[in-house]
Amino acid sequence: MSLSEAEQECFILTVGAQDTSASFVSAFLDFILQNKDVYEMLLSEIQSLEQAGALSHPVAQYSETLTMPYFMACVYETLRLMPSVSMVLPRYAPSGGIYIEGIWIPEDIEIAANPYVVHRNTNIFGFDAEVFRPRRWIDSSPRRLQLMNRYFFAFGYGSRRCLGKNIALFESQKFLMQLLRQFKMQYVSQNQSMRIENWGINMFFDQFVRLKDRPSMAPATKTSAPGMKIGQDHSDNQLPT
Predict the structure, then answer these.
(1) In the predicted model, what is the mean pLDDT of residues 21-48?
(2) Highest-scoring range by mean pLDDT, 15-29, 52-66, 91-105, 129-143
(3) What is the 8-class DSSP label of residue 224?
(4) Is the dihedral of CA 29, 35, 39, 41 positive or negative?
(5) Among 30, 63, 146, 235, which residue carries the largest CB count within 10 Å?
(6) Quick check: 31 pLDDT over 60?
(7) Largest CA distance in the chain
(8) Which of 111, 94, 65, 89 is nearest to 155 (CA)?
(9) CA distance 100 to 116
(10) How far, in whole angstroms, is CA 37 from its chain's centroid?
């Protein structure tokens, strides 16, 4: 292993499922706090499940967050529009070369795609691909949904996709669910000068959010289980059509 390769491995081990998860959480909060209707829809979905006793207390299980269509739509839409890793993800052309969109790529030539760009393809994600619209993951036809899932590139693709995908989603979804259940949130100022810088990972600066305790949405009726198998592969979970 060369020094350059060792440095890259160290970088991945340092930021994987840590800085990337923080970036996702920041983007998720930014999108929902700037879209009041989305925020209210999320709270309504959570309240309905609370009243039905469908969420564990005091902390929801990861498996429960997967059953929430609108919450998961917001997760997918955030990762689509603001993938934590917004840089090219390189691969080498296979032995013998390959044709891509009618263009011949000789073997061992490095090729790459950027999820930030792929996710804005209007032929795949619709004419409003630049807009944060979670319901595209709910209202789309089965064929369109299959197409969007096929080109969903936030964690890479194939055998070289992010090894930390499952733990990143596990911790992020449980954390965001708890924030929404436990606190009322709003930006300290609607005119705050938050900025985002792309360091290979999207970094959020000066994002100030005010939290206030939220009264319990419903009496506790379900106790959290000791836990779930974190290593269980949920990578093939898809949103309901």
Answers:
(1) 93
(2) 129-143
(3) P
(4) negative
(5) 30
(6) yes
(7) 63
(8) 89
(9) 20
(10) 19
Calculate mean pLDDT across residues 116-143: 94
User: CA-to-CA distance for 43 and 36, rounded, in angstroms?
Assistant: 11
Residue 233 identity (one-letter amino acid): D
Q: In sequence order, what DSSP letters do the residues of 54-111 get, joined into one string?
A: -S-BSS--HHHHTT-HHHHHHHHHHHHHS-SB-S-EEEEPPTT-EEETTEEE-TT-EE
Rg (CA), the chain: 19
Closest residue by Cα to residue 29 from 135, 156, 132, 136: 132
Task: Answer yes or no: is pLDDT of 212 > 70.
Answer: yes
Nearest to 80 by CA among 24, 35, 21: 24
CA–CA distances in Å: residue 116 to residues 149, 173, 200: 15, 21, 11
Q: Does residue 58 have a cis bond before it (omega within 30 degrees)? A: yes
Contacts of 151 (CB under 8 A, 6+ apart): 118, 119, 121, 124, 125
The DSSP result for 143-195, as a single string, is HHHHHHHHT--BTB-GGGS-TTHHHHHHHHHHHHHHHHHHEEEEES-TT---E
**40-76 pLDDT per residue, tens:** 999 999 999 999 889 998 899 999 999 999 999 999 9
What is the average pLDDT value for the chain, to the nearest integer? 83
- Nearest CA to 179 out of 88, 74, 94, 67 is that of 74
Q: In which band, very low, low, confident or very high, does the pLDDT at 16 lie, cut at 50, 70 and 90? A: low
Asked if 185 contacts 21 with a C-beta cutoff of 8 angstroms, the reply is no
